[in-house]
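Need Cation:dicarboxylase symporter family transporter's 3D structure for a figure. Predict it.
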Amino acid sequence: MAAAANPYDGSQKSRKRDRTHFLYIAVIAAVVLGAVLGLLAPEFAKSLKPLGTGFINLIKMMIAPVIFCTIVLGIGSIAKAATVGKVGGLALGYFIIMSTFALAIGLVVGNLIHPGEGLDLQASAGAAPAAPEEGEGMTGFLLSIIPTTLLASLTGESILQTLFVALLVGFALQKMGPAGAPVLKGIGYIQALVFRILMMIMWLAPIGAFGAISAVVGETGIQAIVSMATLMVAFYITCILFIVVILGGLLKLVTGFSIFKLMRYLGREYLLIFSTSSSEVALPRLIAKMEHLGISKPVVGVTVPTGYSFNLDGTAIYLTMAALFVASAMGKPLELGEQISLLVFMIIASKGAAGVTGAGLATLAGGLQSHRPDLIEGVGLIVGIDRFMSEARALTNFTGNAVATVLIGTWTKEIDKEQVKAVLDRELPFDEASMNVDAGTDEPRQTAESAELAATVPSPAGSSAVAGTAGDPRH
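Structure prediction for Cation:dicarboxylase symporter family transporter:
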């Protein structure tokens, strides 16, 4: 019998995901080299700014199709999840509330620490697009959301127009019922193509990060490094507090179980996620372990896959903190009203982009492009440090989904609390041999029954399983 320390040893899926480790290593090396060059040869480093600008322009090119596909397919998945009944509706309601709460926490922390303050990169931003005129008022703003044609929203620069049309298309396909299924399937294929292109672009991230970090450090010196380090530390602390205080408190209040015992039970999954910076790789193991914990198969089969697309707590915190960091670094802080409208945009746009490298970066750029186009240049800073925050995002997303499964099981009374207690107290250890891969397949045996249930609620970023796409939850 093969060792089960890593359920994906020798599988084709694992080999494809492992290729992105070279990308991550290259990005880290590029950030270090860029910072060193900026300190040693600041004038030359400033001249490398176009490298970062070019990469950001490539990301901007992908914003509209990413937003359109994820929103349309996301709305379709919500409809399918709701048809599962009480479990699906309860899970979706919880996910929307919790991810909104996580976004709000990111805004609060970002406003408290102001990590980008002091950089003042406004002078070097170049010819950035002008922000919308405030004099237009609310009427002008609302009218500007309506595109001149349906397709114009996909080719123009207004991301709010893209969001508006995507919502219309998504709800229209819902109303069409079975007749709309072929269209949804077609959009799913388009999304696969879009994410494949996005992944290709992300392989240029080391070049973009090198140019952006070199230019910033060359202009501001050590202050840039201090500001980026402040953001990373603050993000890690926020994620830890969110897991221990918010998720732990909610779990204790509703079920009486300890978050620390649950995390100990999921220790192997945390190691797997930390080594790959992806919560997606632990999806089959989470399904198997939640069933072993004592939660019914229907609850696990609906809650876990849906949560992987709609319950991205770590990504939500990251999006808002990163947006505020960019605004402060550019010397153009966001007003309270802009922050709230950005939060609403992120609530909608972040759904369904799980599991695809660069999707989170595109969502962040889309939010800034829709609210403050003059800040889009600052996304180059985030490219450089994004990799350093990915582990915290992935671990927070994973923990949030594990806690959600226990909570939904408790609320629907589909949980064996005696078994949960025995498992968490190590009296009923999980059988790692059950996660061995069957000959000729890439899927663990234990998840076969759950997979049938999971198919009821396909991830709108089902393209996270698109061949060769990395399972990085940047969303």
